[in-house]
Amino acid sequence: MSAAEAVPPALLRQIGGLAVELAALAGREMKREIGRSPAVRYKPGGGGSLRDPVSEVDQAVEAEIRARLAERFPDHDVLGEESAERPARGARFLWAVDPVDGTANYINGFPLFAGSIGVLLDGAPVAGAVWCATSHDLRAGVYHAIQGGALHFEGQPMQPLHNPEVRRRLAGFVDASPRSPQGWEARRTGSAAIECAFVAAGLLEVARFERPNTWDVAGGFALVRAAGGAIRVLGEAGWQPFDRFEGDPGPWRRPVILGQPEAVERLCREP
């Protein structure tokens, strides 16, 4: 029995609807504050690193999302980027929240950032909603899906884009340089959540992440699966199909490849 089969359909739809609502909330707040020069601090890092910024918007949005989840699903756990609080550690349902993914882009006004909500049941993604500052439709909006359902954008079902005339597709790689795997035009967006959403929508054929956090990709995993994509994670036995976040999703950090199944298979064979 899959994780979704263990959830009453009405409850799964309710969870999916709330995920969309919360992702849209994050998007509204980002748009409202982007021109107001929000306060920024940097997380502690070696050598005075300035590579991990946090804006006041990140913190305020996560606090609001947590408050709404406490009202609607007080027995569900929450794993967020900006707060270590786990209100129901060990609960079967866990909401993985990244209020602003791509904060460095956001604070610089570079329009590639996202708000990501992923819902896990016993570690398996069953719903995802990712608000993106831009999209296949050249506008901001929420990509969303529940397990067993289709990929949607702003409430409308969609098929991943594919132009058979394009012979060299785009791919999301950490190292967008001539050293990147051959066969793709490499792109770096600075947001794992956006890259997951863009893979689901067909804008990227494949993407690789070196050690993402659960909140970076949980929502996107649900989107990629709904779009018919494949997800693999690197373990001791090599690249294995992803089923669920094993153990506590909090410290989970594994290399990931996701995308069109044939592209994932090919990239997994790269040295």
UniProtKB/TrEMBL annotation:
<dbReference type="GO" id="GO:0007165">
    <property type="term" value="P:signal transduction"/>
</dbReference>
<dbReference type="GO" id="GO:0046854">
    <property type="term" value="P:phosphatidylinositol phosphate biosynthetic process"/>
</dbReference>
<dbReference type="GO" id="GO:0006020">
    <property type="term" value="P:inositol metabolic process"/>
</dbReference>
<feature type="binding site">
    <location>
        <position position="81"/>
    </location>
    <ligand>
        <name>Mg(2+)</name>
    </ligand>
</feature>
<dbReference type="GO" id="GO:0046872">
    <property type="term" value="F:metal ion binding"/>
</dbReference>
<keyword id="KW-0378">Hydrolase</keyword>
<dbReference type="InterPro" id="IPR000760">
    <property type="entry name" value="Inositol_monophosphatase-like"/>
</dbReference>
<dbReference type="InterPro" id="IPR020550">
    <property type="entry name" value="Inositol_monophosphatase_CS"/>
</dbReference>
<keyword id="KW-0479">Metal-binding</keyword>
<comment type="similarity">
    <text>Belongs to the inositol monophosphatase superfamily.</text>
</comment>
<dbReference type="Pfam" id="PF00459">
    <property type="entry name" value="Inositol_P"/>
</dbReference>
<feature type="binding site">
    <location>
        <position position="101"/>
    </location>
    <ligand>
        <name>Mg(2+)</name>
    </ligand>
</feature>
<feature type="binding site">
    <location>
        <position position="98"/>
    </location>
    <ligand>
        <name>Mg(2+)</name>
    </ligand>
</feature>
<protein>
    <submittedName>
        <fullName>Inositol monophosphatase family protein</fullName>
        <ecNumber>3.1.3.25</ecNumber>
    </submittedName>
</protein>
<feature type="binding site">
    <location>
        <position position="216"/>
    </location>
    <ligand>
        <name>Mg(2+)</name>
    </ligand>
</feature>
<dbReference type="GO" id="GO:0008934">
    <property type="term" value="F:inositol monophosphate 1-phosphatase activity"/>
</dbReference>
<dbReference type="InterPro" id="IPR020583">
    <property type="entry name" value="Inositol_monoP_metal-BS"/>
</dbReference>
<keyword id="KW-0460">Magnesium</keyword>
